[in-house]
Input
Amino acid sequence: MSLSTVRRAEAELLLPTYDRHPVLFTRGRGVYLWDAKGKKYLDLLSGIGVNALGHGHPAIRSVLTRQAGRLIHTSNLFFHEFQAELAKQLTKLSGLDRAFFSNSGTEAWEGALKLARAYAHAQNSTGNNAKWRFLALDNSFHGRTFGSLATTGQPKYREPFAPMLPGVSFVGLNDLDDLKWKFDSSVCAICLETVQGEGGISPVSPEFLRLARELTRNNDALLILDEIQCGLGRTGRYFAYQHHDVVPDVVTVAKPLAAGLPLGALLTTHKVATCMHPGMHGTTFGGGPLTCAVAVEFVKQMKALLPHVQNVGNYFQEQLVELKKKHPAVREVRGLGLMLAVELDDADAAKSVVRKMLEEGIIINRTHDTVLRFLPPYIVEKKHVDQAVQALDRVLAAVLRQGVSRKEREPEEAIPDEVALAHA
Ligand code: PLP
Output
């Protein structure tokens, strides 16, 4: 089937929520994808941080086919072999005690918000919920369901769906005074991404994280970290908070967890988990035998890849810093491990760079208007980094030399806007 046939059919049949790149992928292997015409692409986005082991990883294929032949779904009315095994691995790596499995990132985040309210409710003997407010951060992104939207600090995502869940206040990223000013005894949780993803790859500062930990601990509120994008090895540690001396009460993970299959999780302490009882929360699909069996294998593979992620991530960042010296339009290079960003000073230029990189056969994306985002698979090697950085060098030079002409601003093929595409 051709791109134009699929495109026409989708235009008539789907909700117009996505403004896709004009590429039809048909297969992938390792760090590469191929389109329907046979063109090869270096995938430095991994399906927005999901395909962390690349495409068609042999160990994942083997577990997937074996388990698909045995048992795919049971519902959570019954036991299967893999939820406890996966929970054992994740709790051990995170320093937490309990897990709940969902289908997606946003559902893991919804579960975390519900946990904060349930915990506050359980602490309050009067049954009158005095602790009910959430503090979240400007520029954050937590997903598309209502609780996640309500705690997402970007009005463009919330406004079409107003009114939101009440009781959420937003604090400036790394603004210690703002956090102190807005925190009081009515707050049930401080919620934040350890490294903001869709907001432009911005890490939380150690001081801010420590203050959030101190305020919540001293007031019996929860510190909830969203590591759906930055967790599970992406930054070179199992969890991004492990770069700091802080352990949260709840952490959410998803994207890479089942190596491309939909699976999310929240991890929490024994103390917080005791506020939940059968029937208070649940899911039909979440944590099924197929996704959990694959996730157990992902965790095993991820552990072995951590030194490689650190090593190639550092190398990638160094190369991007070198590139910045050559191109004055690059405002900043930032990130941790294999979660990297190049911020340009012009949104139209960033759009053009993503499109020209795609023409060169290299997949990256743009977020927060001016930020080029790199979320390569953990198996990426230095030679792929070199290929990408050389291409980026050429593309930046071409885009900035041409300036952003009117044609670039309004190309024939629509350039996906990050509102539709970011999906974080
Ligand atoms: N939280 C963060 C930090 C994300 O990057 C995303 C991803 O889009 C989400 C939550 C929502 O995850 P999902 O799209 O799986 O619902």
